[in-house]
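Late entry, written up from scratch paper. The run itself happened at the end of the previous shift, but nothing got recorded in the book at the time, so transcribing now.
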Amino acid sequence: MAPMDISQAGKGREPALVALFTATFTASEGAAEGALIGDLVRRLLADTPASDRYVFTAEAGGTIVGGAIFSRLIYDREARTVFVLGPVAVATERQGEGIGQRLLSHGLKTLGDAGVDVAMTYGDPGYYARIGFAPISEAFAPAPFPLQHPEGWLAQSLTGAEMTPLQGKARCVAALDDPVFW
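Output as recorded:
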């Protein structure tokens, strides 16, 4: 198996990233979800200022086999820097190899090293617990929109300090500013 390179090498690779997310979500959730997430990734890459996003890729043999995007989440009464993870994709034929966990661990370390205080995500608690996320309530940290699956609202401190409630109303980047994603 080719060695895995995990990096922030997404620049210039936008079509490959959009294709990866579209194919992965189509395979797992159907064509409509694949198209929705592919468009979300396209918008996150094209329309979100670089200072408001981190893009991580896993590459093997010159092919992107995994991707993760973190984007800024602003709480209007909060001094801490918060980023939300999503979406994440690993090529269907490469799932189960630990690529996602390696990709996300690298991403979380990079964010912590860059001074980000809190990482959040909205997804499978069982999966994300493996890389340090823990369930939180919407009272603890309001979401930008009411959550369809509140059990999937997760967070972790990247500073080593205990997680404390996030203050104020949450605002996400424009690409995620749609209740369909929440």
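Helices lie at 14-29, 31-47, 99-113, 125-128.
(Scratch paper discarded after transcription.)
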